[in-house]
Amino acid sequence: MTEKDRILIAGGGIGGLAAALGLAQKGLSSLVLEKAAELGEIGAGIQLGPNAFHAFDALGVGDAARGMAVYIDNLRLMDALTGDRITHIPLDAGFRARFGNPYAVVHRGDLHGVLLRACRDHPLIDLRTQAAVSRYDQDSSAVTVTLADEVQITGRTLIGADGLWSRVRAQLVGDGAPLVSGHTTYRSVIPVAEMPEDLRWNDATLWAGPKCHIVHYPLSGGKLFNLVVTCHNDAPDPVAGKPVRHADVRRGFEHIHPRAQQIIDKGSDWKLWVLCDRDPVMGWTEGRVALLGDAAHPMLQYFAQGACMALEDAVCLADELDGAEDVAAALIRYQDRRRLRTARVQLQSREIGTHVYHPSGAHAALRNAVMAARGAEEWFDQVAWLYGSTGLEGAVSPETRGP
Question: Per residue in 49-75, pLDDT tens?
C-alpha cells in the first residue's frame, strides 16, 4: 500500500492502538501519531467487563489480555457510613456462562502493553511518537494532518483517538472544553500486605457514602491493591495526575465509618484527577474524519466502561471500513452503530454516580433496600444489554429487545 492508502490515527492510547489492531485484522494499514515522547499509559487499575474481552478476541489479543488480567470473585457493594455489606454480584462460572467471557481488573499499563506489543509486531501498523496532531484538511480523496511542528502527513482517513482534550474533536465538533463534574478522584496503589487483613477480598469493592466513595481491588496477580477514592468538592478546573498530600485526600472522608477510613490511611503517593465528561452528540464524523473513544464520548468513571467503549469502537470501525470503497459512508455507518450505545453509557454513568455511589439519607436507604433485594440472575438481566454484546448491535442488544 502507498502512504495515501494508510489510515491515520491521532492518539496512541488504548483506543488508538485498538483501532490500529482492528484495522490490521482487516488488512488495512495505519499510522498511529502519538504526541508524547514515549508510548505508555498513566494511571493504575481499570475494570474490564465481558464486552471488553469480546473486543479483545476480535482484535486478535484475547489470549494475551486474559493472561495479564486478575479475575475477581464478586462486585461487592458496601455502605461507607455503617461499614456493612449491602450486596454482591457473583462473577463465577454462572456469570461467565451467561456472558461468554469473564469480568477482570488490570493495570492500565499492562493492558496498554498488550496492545502495544501486538501493534509493534504487526507489519501493517506504524507507530510514531512526538507527533501531536494540531489540525486536518481533507478533499474527496485524502486527509492531510498538520502536526505541532508543522510537518504534514497524508492518509485516506483520519481517526481522532486523542482523548478528552482531542484537537480533532475541537475542529470537527467544536463544542468547547469538557464539562467539569466537581468530583475529585484520588488514586494510589499499595502492596497487599498494607491492606487490612479482613478487607483483602478478591473483589472489586465499592464503599458508597454521601458525596464520596472508595473503590479497591487487587492488581498485578494479587500483589497490589488499587485504591480509587472520590469526593464532591466542587473542584472548578480540570486536573490530571497532580500529586497531592495525604491530608488533602483524607479531608473528604471524615464523615464515613472508621472501617472505610482506614483504607485511605494505607494509601501513599496519591495523585488527583478532577472528573470530566461531555454531553453525548449525534455527529462524530466529517467526510473522511471520525472520532473514537474519549474523543467521541468521554464519560465519568462510575460505570467502569470508558476503556471498554473505546475497544468496542475499534471493533466496529474496522468492521465498517473492511472493504469499504466509500470511506465517508463507512464512517457514518460506524457512527450510527455506536452513538446511541455510547450515549447510553455516558448518561447512565452520571446516574449511577448519583443514585448508587453518592446518595445520602432516604435516597441511600432506598438504594440499599432495592439493591439488596436482587438475586444474581436479576443482576445479570440488568447488565445483559451491556456485557452480553459486542457493541455492534447499537444501544440495545438482542437479549434485551422486546418481541
Answer: 999 999 999 999 999 999 989 999 999
End-to-end Cα distance, the chain = 47
Distance of CA 72 to the CA centre of its chain: 18
| 157-160, strands of its sheet edge to edge | 125-128, 30-33, 7-10, 157-160, 289-291, 285-286
Q: What is Dmax (Cα atoms) for the chain?
A: 64
The bridge status of strand 212-219 relative to strand 203-209 is: antiparallel
For residue range 346-363, list pLDDT tens digits in order.
999 999 999 999 999 999
For residue 353, the 8-state DSSP code is: I
**CA–CA dist 283, 254 (Å, integer):** 44
What DSSP character marks residue 378?
H
Asked if residue 274 lies in contact with residue 237, where contact means CB atoms within 8 angstroms, the answer is yes
**How many residues would you count in the chain?**
403
Cell output for 199? 478487607
AA identity, residue 171? Q
CA distances from 348 to 299, 353, 354 (A): 9, 8, 10
Find cell 474496522 and name the residue.
318
The pTM of the full predicted model, rounded to 2 decimals, is 0.95
Beta strands in 192-307 (DSSP E): 203-209, 212-219, 224-232, 240-243, 271-277, 285-286, 289-291
User: Which H/E stretch holds residue 261?
Assistant: helix 258-265
Rounded to whole angstroms, the Cα distance separating 236 from 249 reads 17
Q: Are 18 and 12 in contact (CB under 8 A)?
A: no
